[in-house]
Specification:
The structure holds two protein chains of two kinds.
Chain A: H1 2-31, E1 41-42, H2 45-53, E2 78-79, H3 94-126
Antiparallel strand pairs in A: 1-2
Chain B: H1 2-29, E1 45-54, E2 67-77, E3 84-86, E4 98-100, H2 106-138
Antiparallel strand pairs in B: 1-2, 3-4
Helix pairs in contact in B: 1-2
Classes of the chains: A mainly alpha, B alpha+beta.
Amino acid sequence: MIPRLSAALDFHGQALVLRAERQRVIAGNIANADTPGYQARDFDFASALRAATGSGAAGQGIAVGVMQPGGRVQPTLRYALPAQTNLDGNTVDMDRERGAFVDNAVKYEATLRFVNGSVRSMLDAMKSHQSP
Amino acid sequence: MSMFRILDVAGSAVSAQSQRLNVVASNLANADTVAGPDGAAYKARQVVFQTALVGAKGAQGVAGAAGTGVRVATIAESTAEGRRVHDPKHPAADAEGYVTYSNVNPVEEMVNMISASRSYQNNVEVMSTARTLLLKTLQIGQG
C-alpha cells in the first residue's frame, strides 16, 4: 500500500533531483565565466530523466519501483560548443548560460508544483468526506 | 542536496571576483606611483582564476556531488616597462633626468573593473535564485 502511495511521487521526485543537479552545473558555468581554459558543461535533461526513471517513452508519467536509495543514475555531462571562440580557451557563453539558468529555475518550480499537487490530491483522497 | 552546492559555487565565485576588484582598486590607486618601498616603480597586478571543486565530501552518490567553483590561483605581476617621463626637477629622477612611473594602464583597469562587477552581479543573482528555489522546496506539501 505505502509503496503504491509514494510511487506517484517518484517520477516528479527524480525530476526534481535532476533539475537541482542541472541548476548546480549551470551555476558552475556562470561561476567560471572568467576562468581561463574552462569548458562549459551541461546535460540533456530528457535523456537523463529517462535513464533515471527507467521509462522508455517520454511523458509516460508514473514510474514504478525505480527509486533506489543512494544509487541514482548519474547524468552524462557533455561539453557545450561555443558560439564564439575565446583566446583564453574559455567556452562559457554567458547569454546561453543565463537563459538556461532561468529556464531551469522555472521548470524546477513547475516540478515543485506538480509534487505539491499530487500530495494535495493524495491527502484529499485520504480524508473522509462527510456531508455537512 | 545539490541546491546547497549552488550557494557554495556562487559564493566562491563572488569571493574570487571581489578579490579581482580589490586588485583593480590597488592598481588604480597606484596608477601614478613613482616608487614603492623597494625603490622600484609599482607593477600592475592581475588575478588568475582557476576552477576549484567545492563541497567534494558529499556522502550521497548524486552525480559527483562536488560543484565547480572558482578560486584565485595566483596574483601575477605585469612585466611591462613602466612609463618613463623626462622631468629632471623631479626628486625621483634618475641620472638622465627620467622618472619611471608605474606600468598601470587606467583604461585597462576600468574595463577589468566593469567586467568583474558584472560577473559579481551574475553570481549574486544565481545565489538569490537558488535561495528562492530552496525556500519553495521547504514548503513541499504545506500549500
